[in-house]
Amino acid sequence: MKRVNIKDIAKELGTSIATVSRALNGKEGVSDELRKKIFEKAKELGYIANGLARGMKTSKTFTVGVLISDIRNPYFSEVISSMERVLYAKNYNLMICNVGENPEREKKYINLLVSKNVDGIIAAPTGDEKNLPLYKKLVRHGIKVVLFDRIIGDLQTDSVIVDNEAATYEAVKYLNRFGHRRIGAIYGIEKSYTGSERLKGFFEAVKDFKMECKDEWVKGGEFNEEKSYKCALEILSQKYRPTAIIAMNNFTTLGVMRAVKELKINVPDELSVMGFDDAEWMKVCSPTVTTMVQPTDVIGMTAATLLLDAVEGELVRKPQKVVLKASLIKRNSVGFVEK
Amino acid sequence: MKRVNIKDIAKELGTSIATVSRALNGKEGVSDELRKKIFEKAKELGYIANGLARGMKTSKTFTVGVLISDIRNPYFSEVISSMERVLYAKNYNLMICNVGENPEREKKYINLLVSKNVDGIIAAPTGDEKNLPLYKKLVRHGIKVVLFDRIIGDLQTDSVIVDNEAATYEAVKYLNRFGHRRIGAIYGIEKSYTGSERLKGFFEAVKDFKMECKDEWVKGGEFNEEKSYKCALEILSQKYRPTAIIAMNNFTTLGVMRAVKELKINVPDELSVMGFDDAEWMKVCSPTVTTMVQPTDVIGMTAATLLLDAVEGELVRKPQKVVLKASLIKRNSVGFVEK
DNA sequence: AACTCTTTTCAAAACAATTCACATCCTTAT
DNA sequence: ATAAGGATGTGAATTGTTTTGAAAAGAGTT
User: Fold this and answer.
1) Would you call B78 and A72 a contact, using CB atoms and an 8 Å cutoff?
2) Contact B244, B180 (CB under 8 A)
3) Chain A: residue nearest B285 by CA?
4) Which of A9, B64, B213, B247 is in the most buried spot, having the most CB atoms within 10 Å?
């Protein structure tokens, strides 16, 4: 069945499409009486504006693309949920693009979003250098871009990140207070933005607090459970092992906890575990996990708000860089080191 | 900066836009030589087709709306991730719409999706009667609809669901094998499709296996952790209480586990817990949770495939109803009842 | 040279909205 | 009576693409 358009309304009312458009969009130049009639007729016919046609003319689509690595990661689903809340209020739709850590997908999705004339893109970029020009092109072409979680190169655009370096530094500092002198870590993707920053903070703290940290105690390579589990097994099977271990995202934390369980290591008596990110399971597993959490709702809200500002604001303003702090949630996986 | 369009390409090459369009879309009637030149020029100028204009003409947008209650629910994020995988392969985008259990949001989002001329909608409907006409209108207007997780009324459209009744029936049956004769339950939204089906299967099994089930042992009302936690506390604080309890989705399961932990009830020795849905935490908490899981990836894949079939298929076919089975994952929260 | 046939190309008409520049109407002032 | 001015309404252009019917060009046949 054909959709009703303003032409139909105009014809029914014996007026012109221009007038109908003006009336429906709340522009002046239409008498109150006629305007009312137009609204009534629109409702009666079940008129819904055609966003494509409107978008063509106004070059505004009320659509925002969101590039993330994996929607199944609670970190991302929480951030997105929070973005969705602010965008929904302004009648925007979100296009979710799972790019994994795959630059090819990132590229294809960006082009798809451009072809759909999205008003803006909120992205946690893979960080691959070869897609940097793509992002720059977006900015040049007037598609607003807000980066979150990770930033790349010298892209002149808004961004919302967490001070990852400080986060792991604080985590180590906290462990230090519990008397830990031997420390290990499970990291994620070394050369990713978050991965490297978190490692940096870790090593810095290790140095500052004069802890012992052997190469064999620091392993990783991927932000996933399986890899982290294996790395944790390796680290913890050593005869001489750390008294505390720090994981660098939610999946790695999960891997560590699984390894610990399998090796029947008592946490926190024999080993303290510091997690990263928060997840439901950390509240119910035994022991519950002490962890550095990122303020996912603030991240999402801020990113969405920045994008809306950029999209709806008339004037061009300087790129903003919002840096948020991670915070420590104290639960039961960290304890004093055994004498 | 202005986007390059086919007119620009045509002008540069001294040909007509019709020819450029034909060449780029792989239609015949363009000499190989000219076609090659057109492709080269398009690449050189960085041409990306304008989806709005294309959509106007072809009334195809390569966009699919997805209505769910909450992206933070791992059940939904897994299903969506799986949908995304199949839709991405065919160059479709997903518009995620978090509707909570709110019919108003559902209505607004559906209208938004219509205005954006999505090719189809995959929805887990709230089930509110007053939005049924909206869904019917979609179908009438040629927007393909695939329902999943829940179905509503007499809507003539494809659907993918799990046999929820059988799922809880099987769960109780399993508990019966462990000698449980007194059983309780934490349910979700009674009048929701999934909620009522699961309850139905539960009561049926309770009757069939001649179990004892007091009214005070069956509580619920919302599919969330807090409410379920409170209900579980109430049930388990009673002097005469069930030896097994069954939760009816992932959040309710989490609530039960928290209550159990707080009451220092030993699971499975003092109480067996049967969960529903799967989640990371169920694998790491103590004890790990035995649970009825829905095949999220199959659900997502099937729903997306059905939608693609409907959207891309020429001929109209009968609405399909795919019913999948939940399966039991045996872990450690269910044990033999104490003598 | 005139004709058919095939291949290649083009001009113009949609698609549904917005918007600019006019046109019309009515009132009021000169 | 005429002019001015404000309010209200209209026609037509515009947005970028696809698509259709027709035209042009080239090749082969008579």
Assistant:
1) yes
2) yes
3) A285
4) B247
**By CA distance, what is B76's nearest residue in A?**
A72
CB–CB contact A74 B78 (8 Å): no
What per-residue confidence (pLDDT) applies to A313?
85
The region, left, alpha or beta by phi > 0 then psi within -120 to 50, assigned to residue A240 is beta
Do A56 and B53 make contact, defined as CB atoms within 8 angstroms? Answer: yes
List the domains of chain A with CATH numbers: 6-49 (1.10.260.40), 60-162+296-324 (3.40.50.2300), 164-294 (3.40.50.2300)
CA A283 to chain centre: 22
| CB pairs < 8 Å spanning A and B | 141
Diameter of chain A by CA atoms?
91
Task: Say yes or no for a CB contact (<8 Å) between A94 and B95.
Answer: yes
Determine what percent of chain A is predicted with pLDDT higher than 90: 88
With bands split at pLDDT 50, 70 and 90, how would you rate the model's confidence at A164?
A: very high
CA distance A68 to A65: 10
Q: At a CB cut-off of 8 Å and minimum separation 6, what does B197 contact?
A: B164, B165
Q: How far is B100 from chain A (nearest CA, A)?
A: 11
- List the single residue in A with minimal CA-CA distance to B60: A52
Q: Enter the tokens of residue A153.
A: 């190169």
> For strand C, is any atom closer than 7 Å to the CB of A21?
yes
pLDDT digits (tens, 9 = 90+) for A35-78: 999 999 999 999 999 999 999 999 999 999 999 999 999 999 99
Entry pTM:
0.95
With cut-offs at 50, 70 and 90, classify the pLDDT of residue A285: confident
Predicted confidence (pLDDT) per residue in B44-79, tens digit: 999 999 999 999 999 999 999 999 999 999 999 999
The answer to whether B99 and B68 have CB atoms below 8 angstroms apart is: yes
CB within 7 A of strand C (chain B, 37-66)? 53, 56-57
Cβ atoms of B186 and B247 within 8 Å: the answer is: yes
Closest residue, by C-alpha, to the C1' of C18 = A57
- With a cut of 70, say whether residue A339 has pLDDT above it: no
Q: Report cis status (omega within 30 of 0) of the bond before A74.
A: no
Q: What one-letter code names the amino acid at A138?
A: L
A285: which chain B residues are within 8 Å (Cβ-Cβ)?
Answer: 281, 284-286
